[in-house]
Request: fold
Amino acid sequence: MTATAPPAPARERRGPGPKLPLGERWSRRGPLLPALLLVVLFTQLPMAVTVYYSLQSRNLLRPDESAFAGFDNYVAVVTDAHFRGAVVNTVVLTAGVVLLAMALGVALAVLLDQRFLGRGVVRTLLITPFLVMPAAAALIWKHAMFNPLFGVLNWVLSPFGVDRVDWVSEYPMFSLVLMLTWQWTPFMMLIVLAGLQSQDPEVLEAAKVDGANALQTFRRITFPHLRRFIELGLLLGSIFIVNTFDPIYLITQGGPGQATTNLPYFIYQVTFRAFEVGEAAAAGVVVVLCTILIASFALRVISGLFREER
Reply:
């Protein structure tokens, strides 16, 4: 007779634990209440005040005149051609910077994943742009890189016939995209480099034994493995770059005209140049709602990327 193996024990389902008394539950939640109150105080209270002002007709030049406007401010913002232009500029700026930074980040990450003399020094130098303060980086690019007389960019391109080009005036959006790409490429590079260093070396060795060259290995094995890291970088980069303000304020002032005015700078103009507090608050509420929708989608995608497959 052959002995049969005993059946595997069924996995026990862990149900909810015993319900704790009300006093004990509040004693456990008590230490968290100060932090919760601070979060509400510094996030929800300003948002509630902003919503209140968005329903008011208020101008800082006429502080004594205030009236309930209802949704007139929202209608004025949505129908404003400058607001729609700011939306388009925000999309163009964000998409251009994120895509270029990711492409360069992948290339640099692949380079840094190789072993060569001085790799630590090169890695430190490539990370440096991300550590520079945004305001300082904007001023450096405005006066040292884009200057039409002694700018480094014109000097580098002078062998190709480029001479005394005023980049900020003639190509304002390109100038911002170039500067922000320089600043955000290290961020993308670090995310992709983490993905490269998490690859299974046995899989790469097996591909080499099977005769796959470097390009085939990258296209068939490495790039599919990096997909989740690339998507993570694209999503996080988009959320951060949408809020860009310092370079626009210090380099282009939203111009020429409204050529580089994005949503944060549009709100600044309405508040501190037109002094329309109600319309600025309404624009801020609209931007926050759109950002919440995008962030919710981003968080859902990110959580799906890192959910364990069953």
